[in-house]
Amino acid sequence: MGIIQDNKAERDEKVIDFTLASSNNLLLIFTRNPELGKGKRRLADTVGDESALKIYQFLLNHTVKITCNLYAEKIVYYSEEIWENDIWDNKRFGKKLQTGINLGARMANAFQEGFQNEFQKIIIIGSDMFDLSQEDIEQAFKALESNDFVVGPAEDGGYYLLGMKNYMPELFNNKDWGTETVLKDTLAHLKDKKIALLETRNDVDYYEDIKDIEAFQPFLKHINS
C-alpha cells in the first residue's frame, strides 16, 4: 500500500509553501487529518473506526499517487492542523490550513487566495475519490481552456471536482453542504456560464460505495467473513 499517514507528525508552526513558477495551474486538495474516530463517520457506522481510518489512509495514498506528478502547483489544505512530515512531500505539495466557518467558506477562501496569487486556472478536489485519476484532473484543466468552469458531478448529488478561471463567490454561499442539493444549486448559479461537465463519479461515504470494489476487500474481511 505504500507509506501510510497514520501518526500525527511534528506540527509546522509556519505555512509550508512553494511555487512551481512554470505553471499557471493550481490544484487545491482538501483533506481531513486522518485520526481514529474522526472523519468517514457514515462509513465507520458499518465497518468500525479502525477500518474506516485505514480506508481513508488508503484513499489519501491514492490521492497522492494521482496528483504528485501533475503539472500544476499543488496545495494541500488540512482540516485541523498542518502535518510537516507525512505522505504529502513538502517538495511537491504546498501545505496550508483550511479557514472558514463551513465548507463553502473554506473553499471560497482557498480559491480567492489562489486568484490573488495570479493563478489562471484553479481546481479543487477532495481526498476520498478512488475513481479519480491523474488523467481526469488533466482533462479538467484542459477543459478550462475553452470553458469558464468545470464540474465533476458526484453520484450523491454533490461534486468531486470544481474548477474555474475567475473567482465566483456565489458558488460557495447558501448551500446545504453535504446534501444531495449541492450540485443542483451550484449548476443553477452557472446556467449562463460556459461550463464543462465531467463524468459522474462515486465518492466514498458509505459501506455500499466500496463493498464490491476489489481494492477495498482487505479492509472489509471482518465484515465479509
Describe this structure in words.
This protein is an alpha/beta fold and 225 residues long. It has a single domain (25-224), classed as Spore Coat Polysaccharide Biosynthesis Protein SpsA, Chain A (Alpha-Beta Complex). Helix content is 28%, strand content 16%. It contains 6 helices and 7 strands. The protein has helices at 41-47, 49-67, 103-116, 134-143, 182-189, 221-224, and strands at residues 25-31, 73-78, 94-97, 121-125, 149-153, 159-164, 195-197. It has a 7-stranded mixed sheet with strand order 3-2-1-4-6-5-7, sandwiched between helices. Helix 1 packs across helix 2. It starts with 24 loop residues before the first strand and ends with a helix. The model is unreliable at 1-21 (pLDDT under 50).
Quick gist of this model?
The protein has 225 residues and is of the alpha/beta class. The chain is 28% helix and 16% strand. The longest helix has 19 residues, at 49-67.
**Binned strand content:** 15-25%
The name of the CATH superfamily reads: Spore Coat Polysaccharide Biosynthesis Protein SpsA, Chain A
Low-pLDDT stretches:
1-21
Share of residues in helices: 25-40%
Q: Count of DSSP E strands?
A: 7
Query: Overall pLDDT, averaged?
Result: 88
* Total helical elements: 6
Which series of helices and strands comes N to C?
A: EHHEEHEHEEHEH
Cα shape: globular
